[in-house]
Amino acid sequence: MTETLAQYGALLSFVLFIVLLMFFVLHQYRHKKWLQKVFLQEDASILQEERSDKINFETKLIQAGLTKKEFFQIVALSIFTGVSIASLVFILHLSPVVKALLVFFALSIAVATPFIYLDEQKKARIKRIERDLAIFIDLLIIILEGGGGLHNAIDQVTEDAKDIIGKDLLEESKRFKYEFITYDSELAYNNLVKRTGSEAIATIVGFMRLSQETGIGVKSVFENQSNEIKEADLLNLEKKAAMMNVSLTFTMFLFILPAIIAMIVFPISAGAILNLKF
What we know:
Number of helices: 10
Number of domains: 2
Distance between the termini: 69 Å
Number of strands: 0
Low-confidence stretches: 37-53
Structural class: mainly alpha
Shape: flat
């Protein structure tokens, strides 16, 4: 009895230590960010951030389309879930090995879930941005062909295409235009690539830099990129269509073919059994 209580006490102490350690790290992080906000101006903070190739926490949240409040809610929910699973050790009668595995599983959920969720949201946001990118570029081309400038084109598309283009790409276009006007163009390009994390955006930015250096019209760059994006989308659709035959064949062998065989075999078996009775 004493040994069992000692084991329970050790497990409880270990779980509480992990939880307290997480809260301590979170507190130190928030305190550090608060000091940075006090002693750094917003513009200086942006410039200081982009001198480094590292992506900070705020940029990762933007890449995932989340706010700090939403992320901390996920963290709190993960910790609560992990603690709830770990508490089963004190309720169920399990072997020490199973208890250790259960505690390890609970800690894995508490620690890894927020970052896995952040990564998945980032991937989903990249897909949403790249899905709307061709339409956004086509609208820019139409305005540029009408004699409008790039900044005016971005403004007009951002305001008038809210029902056609998702908010992720529209928000990025607003940020890019503001930084392009306020700061150096190279800084605006780097910020756009970092915030989106999209290879398609990075390619467009590369050609925009080339256009700025060589004097080639931005309209030509956008037309080429729009055609490439559409061709890539068409190629992906063709791949999905080709794989659909394999999926249908697998579905047929897994579900339909056994049912057809059963419809044939069961009556024959039933007739054979009846003949044996007679």
